[in-house]
Amino acid sequence: MSEIAGSHQRQTPCIKLDGDAGYVLDFLDKHFRSVFQPICALNGECFGYEALLRVYDADGSAIRPDLFFKSIADNPALCLLLDQWSRELHFKNFQLLLSPCCLFVNVFPNTLVKEQVGNIHHHNPLVSQDPQQRVYIEVVEDDCEDLHALMESAKDLRVRGYHIALDDFGSGFSDLHRASHLSPDIIKIDRSLLRAIDSCEKPLRHAISLAKELGALVVVEGVETEQELELVKGIGVDFVQGFYIGMPTEMRLLLADIKVEA
Fold first, then answer.
1. What are the CA-CA distances from residue 174 to residues 138, 143, 169 (Å)?
2. Rounded CA gap, 111 and 77, in Å?
3. Which of 46, 80, 239, 259 would you call most buried, defined as having the most Cβ atoms within 10 angstroms of its Cβ?
4. Using one digit for the tens of pLDDT, what is the confidence trace for 212-238?
């Protein structure tokens, strides 16, 4: 951790265009890239893409994102900075795709809290969006130091044209208490509830029922087989996401598809 902290002090995050591979974020002697995973309606039509971060060493070796973020978890300032710059990276890359679909961007709840109370100023904060662009700020399941400030942040984001999604409902701190305070437009059901459906459908059905009671649309995450897709079609979900629906795809491949279509 001391090595990472030292790198943080020596470096400034830098986003640059890397040819056909899209934009890349260089920071902490690492390269951070965007990949995009589709979220689809039950008829197969693409509704949107979730932006996900991929982390690489200077030599190009891949690092598991969860392990990387775990390694910096005891440095909140660094987590905040990387969260903000990752968001900007995803926005820049998604603009290159010229997609009419909506964009889902993961954000730590404490990032939104700190931005809301004004303790942190980012050089490119969340500015106003055209509501027709349907950008969803996806609040992840981490703990939140100030739920009231998070709620105020969600309200402010809506005023500026954003939509709110709640990630991994049924896991971590992504529960009914948080959902009822944020009133998200979309609730994404954690994959663990789908994994348990063979032994008991009740938790998944209950989570979907709670989401509907809050007026949210429902995404079920972690759909990895045709059987799982058929199972969720009859229990009230609106959208699905998972490896069976579509793999997270690198910018290089997505941009190549655009050239072919053109």
1. 11, 9, 5
2. 10
3. 239
4. 999 999 999 999 999 999 999 989 899
